[in-house]
Amino acid sequence: MAERSTAAVDVADNSGDEPLTAKAEQPTADGVALTRERDTAADEDAAETGKPKSRGASSPPELHSGHKLARRYRLEECVTRLDGFSSWRAVDEKLRRAVGVHLLPANHARARSVLAAARSSALLGDPRFVQVLDAVEENDLVYVVHEWLPDATELTAVLAAGPLEAHDAYQLVSQVAQAMAAAHREGLAHLRLTPSAVLRTSTGQYRIRGLAVNAALRGISSETPQRTDTEAIGALLYASLTQRWPYADDAYGLSGLPKDVGLIAPDQVRAGVHRGLSELAMRALVNDGATASRQDQPCTTPEELVKAIGEMPRIRPPEPAFTAPPEYQRTTYQQGTYGRPALHPGATPPVLAPPAPLQSRTGRALKWAVSALLIAALGLGSWQLADALMDRENSADTNTTQTTKDGDDKDRLRPKKPISIENGQEYVLEGVAQDPSAVAKTYDKDRSTLWRTKTFDDGPKIAPFKPGVGIVYDLGSKQNVSEASIALLYSGPETTVTLLAADSLKPTTPIDSMKKIGTTTTSGDTAKILAKKPVKSQYVLLWMTSLPRSGPDGFKEAGFKQAIADVKFKG
After folding, report:
1. How many CA atoms are closer than 13 Å to the CA of 97, on its beta-carbon side?
2. Which DSSP string corresponds to 467-518?
3. Do the Cβ atoms of 509 and 522 come closer than 8 Å?
4. Which is the most buried residue in 111, 139, 472, 473, by most CB within 10 A?
């Protein structure tokens, strides 16, 4: 069996560059719409900036898939080529993760401003923004490297399926406004905050890409950057509520408003829109100092917008809908006509009276006999029940330590308490480590962070190449461990996990000599282990000996592999 070292750092980013036109967006495997109509994109930028479309800009360098920058970043796919620069999906071979790269010639008119914007954005370090990882000038090239989020979806694609529910729209405007307020406090503006610049992750969080850099790449500037970004947030909220772009022209796959009606409130465009969010969108849509809402003061900065959101009643997620079970319907039977004369047409059917009770001497005797039998049966049953209860009580007195096949009943009925994990360390019995720097991500209570194994060519059993892979957890003190739940990334047969009591974070006892807590094999994305009896130990080894096969996913090639998102112990 061969082991491929393709471990990736937790979550990389979702985008090379945002789509530049709404007319040529095609979803890719990464969930990112890519643009191929370069002239249309240039026209859009010219419309936004008020500048003529550039025809004489420096040509982008002739690069191809497989080209390597700084002996580290391998270009994979060009996602945008426009106005002298190009954007690529690439692989950081040093850290084994997907990244995005913006490339332009060093003599490009915007090269200096792009470098300055990228370095300023990198200093912010706010996790709500797609992070700039590197900004370099080398070999007549300027390139900016940023995160790539394969598990995130552009807001453009989200809105293509329909408008957002009130709670989702509230989360969008809250998270984006707070992030932009933090950026402006550090003197950074976006200036190109469009639906394609906002990404929604699989956990429901929103990330903003292209802070300062996207505007620098296109030469966009503003004398009132806070107002520009605030109005853009208002447009995002408007589009999320109505699935319409709040201007006359169509954009980002959304239809614009009718040209003869002007800007109208979202709750007038679509029925059922949340009134508070509708008013908030109108307060943020500011044009030349005049708000679109005549009832409330305009919000001209992200900070004012955050304050307005804080003054609103919080919008809670909708309650889950429960479907009532179907009512049982009585089955009706029609009385048959067997043995009865057929009725003539129009005749009324006779009414059948219930039979008269037995009033004869024989009937009374029969009733007394039945009553006596019932009394005798009840007496016999009561005597047998009392005898059985006495036998059971005597048995309990003589053997108070009786246990079931799976362990002590009292222990099983006792509620389990969570056990906190204080520390962890990868356990390497043979060969190389898997992902030692990411061990803490398995108990940080964040399902989006992962510890990954390497990819194996053969399986599902890892042996004989390696006996297994795993992590030793430190519980802080000796604890009774009786249960474990493990959240996994890949499903499919088969993942075999065993829990063992270890003597330290660096066990000296052989695997075969460790006390087994429990084991399980799962074909899903969760594994639950129940101990027959609680095992007391401070250190617990989570040991995997079989891995499922999974296809390529942007981090790893196809093969036998697994990743752990979350581990919880109970005792």
Report:
1. 20
2. S-EEEEEEEEEEEEEEEEEEEES--SS-EEEEEEEESSSS--S-GGGSEEEE
3. no
4. 473
Over the chain (571 residues), the average pLDDT of each successive run of 10 is 40 40 34 34 40 42 83 92 91 94 95 96 93 93 95 94 95 96 97 96 93 96 95 96 93 90 90 94 75 74 95 84 54 48 53 52 68 73 61 48 45 74 92 89 90 88 88 95 93 91 92 93 91 94 93 77 94 86
Report the distance separating Cα 397 and Cα 537, nearest Å: 33
Q: What is the CATH number of domain 153-311?
A: 1.10.510.10
Taking alpha carbons only, the member of 16, 2, 19, 30 closest to residue 73 is 16
Contact of 554 with 470, CB cutoff 8 Å = no
Rounded CA-CA distance 555/89 in Å is: 13
Q: Which of 233, 106, 123, 248 is nearest to 181 (CA)?
A: 233
Task: Yes or no: say if 67 and 47 are a contact pair by the CB < 8 Å rule.
Answer: no
Tokens of 443: 């108990």
Pairing assessment for the beta strands 563-570 and 469-488 based on DSSP bridges: antiparallel
Q: Which fold has domain 8-147?
A: Phosphorylase Kinase; domain 1 (3.30.200)
Domain 418-570 is in which class? mainly beta
